Amino acid sequence: MSAATPELTNAEREAKARKRGWIAGLLVAFAYLGCALPLVGEYGGTWDCVTSEFPYGERLIEYVLTGDEAYLSLKSREPRPPTREPHPDFDWVRDSWVHAYPLGAILSGVSCRVLWTELGIVPAMAAHLLVIPLLVAGFLAFLVRFASTRIGLLAAVSSAILLAGSPRFFASSFFNLKDVPETCLYVSATLVGYVALTRGGLRWWIISGALTGLALAAKANALFVPPQYLVFLLFVGLVPGLRVKGAIRWSWPGFLAGTAAVFLANFAVSPRYWVEPIAGPVERFSEVMRLGNSVFDDNVTGGTMSFIEYAPLMISITTPLVVLVLALVGLWSRRLNGPLRAFLVAALFVTIGRNMLPGARNYGGIRHFLEFYPYFCLLAGVGVESVANRIAATVRGPSGRALRVLFIAGCLLAPAWQSARTHPNGIAYFNATIGGLRGARESNVAGATDYWGNSYWQAFEWLSENAEQDASVLVTVVSHVGHSNAPVRLRSDLRLRGPSWQPLTDPSFEEQPVVYITFITRDQAYHALEHELESRCEPVHEIRVQGGVVLRIYRVGLDDVGRELLGIWERQVDVRPSMRRIVQWLRANPVEGREALAIVRGLREVGLDETAERLRAHLPVELHEGLEDVLWTQIQR
User: Fold this and answer.
1) Which helix (H) or strand (E) holds 554?
2) Stretch (H or E) spanning 472
């Protein structure tokens, strides 16, 4: 007779559960990488990356290696960091260093320096982007480990799969060096902070603080980590059912150590702060406040949307419907204990609610507050397990088990199927509540397109395969993304023309009088040429997502129509110096600038000539020249 198996102690059971959580988390992470790594080469540079993170990372690495402070200036082109050709061109447009966060930049720069410049084993653009899916994989493993012992293994794995499979997150995990790294670090910091607050332990406070510091070095949204803790503590302290003795283990030593870790981690990866330990953080924080809330900004030309329903609206139309429903189920599930429910509600309250503060500026769609989504998916994972268990309890036997498996598979595959359908333009995904991308465009939803320019990577592939030898290529919207991608994506004989190109007076254009004009359908950036092309010509190629167009390519020659269209482009080019002078004056004179903009807003009602006459009475005389042409470009929008 065999001896009875000894019963496990609580400590042994906990250790076994933690081990299962790590194993499951690593399996999810490797599954994600198995899908993501082969796809990295199908994504290119996007707006912020090519103006900020990519060039900033290369310069910061060189500063660390040489100590030359000239590399700390992002807008400077010289001295140039060493690169290996072919390499993307990041010299077309440069942003200010305060808009370029160092963590994603450094990781990207190190990856390209090692994998391409030194070893030559991964193409330059892919090497720059590779760090994002690697970081996401690590986060998925940690998320499953954290959740497995608190909401169940099935719920934990489901949460990670729903997160990674959702189109907006999946697409951003390839080309978003700000929001995705910050989201992973922000959520990791707060989950570790939850452990510190509910279990105690100095090391958890320190780890949470260090992760918060790194998150701040990825994007300033992590400034809301402390308010999120505060809201959680208020919930636990004020809600009667949560006021349980010992539920919260506050530690002043832990708080102080964690705060110190925030500053140490943030400064460690912020080389600019090494030489400007006070002025650097103050300058960045001032810019964050100006950019994030109109209350702190007198810039009359820098307005972005500020309306209270923005965040709830974007969540409701860009989250896969299955995730929306499951999250609502999970919120009320009994699988959540009181403190964890309060923590998740506080997390959603802060990450979404900050966008509803008075004067808060909203832009960039879901990516602007992506931190909410992992918490949302944790609730959705709880919803999966809750409904699956109810099915098993209701339908007994093999039929119940089969139905349960089908339900789980259907829930987890639904978002992934949408990612597959929209790849590599999942950033343009909208759910069925608004009719996909086509419905969002018909409803004039801001950002209902490929607004970051990722699709130029695909457009250049098509042009390289189909355009005539030595043909010209003109990118008219967010052109700097196209020019950055061109050295590693566009066929070498194709002539990518600059934004000031004057084709009708360029003798070289006579040699091959064909120009391919391409632009993303970012309507607010249109001028006369884009409207004329869409109304009068048929594109030779389109990139579609969910029935909506995100990019168009037109072929224009030197026939009568072509000359007329190219003449419109040249008129737009000619007016740019006058436009720049007016914009500079508006920024320097905010009070008078607002009055001038009020006059311009009546352009369509009173007409071009009357508007120009009113503006001349309002603007200084040095801005009068070319005013009608400037107004012409505005009336064409």
Assistant:
1) strand 548-556
2) strand 472-475
Q: Hunting for tokens 């790590």 — which residue is that?
A: 22
Contact 308, 400 (CB under 8 A): no
3-class DSSP state of 185 = helix
Task: For residue 31, count CB atoms less than 10 angstroms from its CB and return exposed for 0-12, middle for 13-18, buried for 19 or more.
Answer: middle
List, for residues 55-83, the tens digit of each pLDDT value: 999 999 999 999 999 999 999 989 999 99
Least Cα distance to 54 among 138, 135, 126 occurs for: 126
Distance CA 45, CA 48 (A): 8
| CA distances (Å), origin 19, targets 141, 144, 276, 337, 512 | 12, 11, 45, 22, 65
Q: What are the tens digits of pLDDT across the range 218-247?
A: 999 999 999 999 999 999 888 877 766 667
- Residue 231 has, within 13 A of its CA and on its CB side, a CA count of 20
- How far is Cα 319 from Cα 28, in angstroms, rounded to an integer? 21
pLDDT over 70 for what percent of the chain?
95
Rounded Cα gap, residues 339 and 53, in angstroms = 38
Q: Is the dihedral of CA 278, 283, 284, 286 positive or negative?
A: positive
Q: Which residues pair with 553 in a beta bridge?
A: 518, 541
CA–CA separation, 279 and 262 (whole Å):
18
User: Quick count: other Cβ atoms within 10 Å of Cβ 112?
Assistant: 29
Find the helix packing angle between 338-353 and 372-394, rounded to 10°: 140
d(CA 587, CA 107) in angstroms, rounded, equals: 35
The per-residue pLDDT for 282 is 95
CA–CA separation, 423 and 42 (whole Å): 9
- Condensed to tens digits (0 to 9), the pLDDT of residues 590-610 reads 777 777 777 777 767 777 777
Residue 276, CB-side half-sphere exposure with 13 Å CA sphere: 13
Q: Which two tokens stand for residue 459?
A: 């457009």
Q: With H, G, I as helix, E, B as strand and everything else as coil, classify residue 541.
A: strand
1 falls in which pLDDT band (50, 70, 90)?
very low
Tokens of residue 546, six digits: 């969910």
Per-residue CA distances from 378 to 140, 141, 195, 351, 412 (Å): 12, 14, 16, 15, 13
Structure tokens, 380: 């959705």
- Asked if 512 and 556 touch (Cβ cutoff 8 Å), the reply is no
What is the CA 550 to chain-centroid distance, rounded?
17
Look-up of token digits 């006058």: 578
Across the beta sheet with 515-520, the strand order is 495-497, 472-475, 515-520, 548-556, 541-545
| Tally of CB atoms within 10 A around 491 | 17
